[in-house]
Design goal:
Elements: E1 6-7, E2 13-14, E3 22-27, E4 32-37, H1 42-55, H2 70-80, H3 86-103, E5 109-114, H4 120-134, E6 138-143, H5 146-159, E7 164-169, E8 184-189, H6 199-212, E9 218-224, H7 229-235, H8 242-258, E10 267-274, E11 279-286, E12 290-294, E13 299-303, E14 308-315, H9 319-328, E15 331-338, E16 344-351, H10 352-355
Parallel strand pairs: 4-7, 5-6, 5-8, 6-7, 8-9
Antiparallel strand pairs: 1-2, 3-4, 9-16, 10-11, 11-14, 12-13, 15-16
Bound molecules: S-adenosyl-L-homocysteine and N,N-dimethyl-L-histidine (AVI).
């Protein structure tokens, strides 16, 4: 944990927070709101390193966190409204059922949403909290996409002007130490974004959260469950072609970050269920032979017709696979909430030490 501390706009101290590279402020109806950006400078280095590594691997790949520039975040929001993309509406239906009970006991807590995206889901919880609880809560959206954090925060403050919001632009896979820790936290990791991490990454990510959870902290995670192949594949290859646009947008992100000259029309969108690994794989498949220059990292990469770039895995879970992952991360399942068809689950996990009554450090 970083031991840095900094002053907030209202003069308070945020303990444990290293210095962000930029602080954006915007004015909501009643006050100024801060968004702390910990990615500037780091993002440029990381994308250069990751793309160099990914495009020189025998199966070319690009990490899916690079989907999310401002356009990628918007496209993802549009995907969430698609009839084929069942995860969002299914998770929302579960959240509506549990929101009241979940928020009943909440006051003086931080709601930390990792990979927060749009504000649709947190709105349900904040609505259920009621105005008096809301005025003691602080919402902390954490996302790699600055536009998503700012727009979601602004939108929320228009609906709930009494809410305290602190936006954080950071990479949740390697910058969790920037989170404020002085108050109890409800961690939210919704949308089955956990499925976009590979098994090893998800275990170390959960372990990191588990090891740093204080006695009153809670952790809620959304999981997309295994279901028939046709339903899964339609969700990632919709008839309007929005998922294809989203997939190809990763090339635009690389073009602008690395001075590359990818032509998205040289690629086809490909999405299929890989049963062995229980995951949807998204790829971009070259439709001809060509070479791409990546000016700022001094590389030229050749593509042969038919070869693919693996752009995303979206793992699909079973109760057994979730319980196994939790136990590998020193967590155990405390509460389990599902829709009637069992298509999606929201799971509350607690550190094993709490269950075993082991004294906390
Ligand atoms: N939680 C929302 C959004 C899911 S989309 C929902 O349930 O609908 C995934 C979100 O995670 C995007 O907003 C994306 O920008 C963010 N994201 C992806 N990888 C990230 C990373 N490594 N660090 C921080 N945010 C990330
Ligand atoms: C953010 N994440 C959980 C989405 C998913 O379903 O894996 C991203 C996505 N990719 C294609 N469609 C949606």
């Amino acid at each position: 944990m970083s031991l840095g501390s900094r002053k907030t706009l209202d003069g308070g101290i945020l303990a444990n927070m290293s210095n962000p590279t930029t602080v954006n402020t915007f004015k909501s109806k009643y006050r100024l709101v801060e968004t702390l950006n910990y990615l500037e400078g780091k993002y440029e280095n990381d994308i250069a390193r990751d793309v160099r590594e990914g495009l020189t691997a025998s199966q070319k790949y690009i990490p899916c966190k690079y989907f999310y520039d401002a356009r990628g975040s918007k496209l993802f929001e549009d995907i969430c409204r698609l009839p084929e993309y069942y995860p969002t509406r299914t998770e929302i239906s579960i959240l509506r059922d549990i929101a009241h009970d979940l928020m009943e006991t909440f006051a003086h807590k931080d709601l930390v949403e990792l990979g927060s995206g749009a504000n649709w889901k947190i709105r349900i919880l904040l609505e259920a909290a009621g105005e008096s609880n809301r005025s003691t809560l602080r919402y902390i959206p954490v996302d790699i996409s600055e536009s998503a954090v700012i727009e979601a925060s602004q939108g929320l403050l228009e609906i709930f002007p009494e809410l305290d919001v602190l936006g954080i632009v950071a990479d949740f896979t390697c910058q969790l130490e920037v989170l404020p820790t002085e108050r109890s936290i409800l961690f939210l990791f919704l949308g089955s974004t956990i499925g976009n991490l590979c098994e090893r990454e998800s275990i170390s990510f959960l372990q990191n959260i588990s090891d740093n959870m204080k006695p009153d902290d809670r952790l809620l995670i959304g999981f997309d469950m295994v279901k028939p192949r046709e339903i899964l594949e339609a969700a990632y290859d919709d008839s309007q072609g929005l998922t294809s646009e989203f997939n190809k947008n990763i090339l635009n992100v690389i073009n602008s970050a690395l001075g590359a000259d990818f032509n998205p029309s040289h690629f086809e969108h490909l999405a299929f269920f890989n049963e062995e690994h229980s995951r949807i794989e998204m790829h971009l498949r070259a439709n001809c032979d060509f070479a791409v220059k990546l000016e700022s990292i001094g590389m030229e990469i050749e593509f042969k017709k038919g070869e693919t770039i693996h752009t995303e895995s979206s793992r699909k879970f079973t109760r057994a696979s979730i319980e196994k992952m939790a136990s590998q991360a020193r967590l155990s399942v405390e509460n389990w909430y599902s829709d009637p068809d069992g298509w999606f689950s929201i799971v509350e996990m607690i550190p094993d030490r709490r269950r075993n009554n082991t004294p906390l450090p």
